[in-house]
Amino acid sequence: MAYVITDTCTKDALCVDVCPTDCIHPKKDEPDFEAETQLFVDPVECIDCGACVPVCTTDSVHALEDVPEDKKEFIDRNAAYYKK
Ligand code: SF4
Ligand code: SF4
Questions:
Q1: CATH value at residue 7
Q2: What is the pLDDT of residues 28-41, one digit of tens each?
Q3: Using an 8 Å Cβ cutoff, are 38 and 11 in contact?
Q4: Domain assignment of residue 62, given as a range
Q5: Which of 18, 50, 52, 79 is the least crowded, having the fewest Cβ atoms under 10 Å away?
Q6: What is the tens place of the pLDDT at every residue in 58-83?
């Protein structure tokens, strides 16, 4: 399982600061931060701790089984970011 970020993400990076495995990217100091419209969770490195959920003010992070029906495409889009 892994957590999934959707397109309501505002890139404030609050989740990056609390993630214990550093699996949310791009970070503000990474080259593609400006170009990307949202952040993504690495499904391989995520340990499902849930720490990113309460800090998100836009309700953009969901556990895999809780991703809303109209946001399911972001499951693949989060994973795809790490296959580039
Ligand atoms: S805390 Fe929420 S809005 Fe902020 S970067 Fe993370 S997912 Fe995006
Ligand atoms: S659930 Fe935990 S490990 Fe996974 S992205 Fe959120 S803070 Fe990081």
A1: 3.30.70.20
A2: 999 999 999 999 99
A3: yes
A4: 3-81
A5: 50
A6: 999 999 999 999 999 999 999 999 99
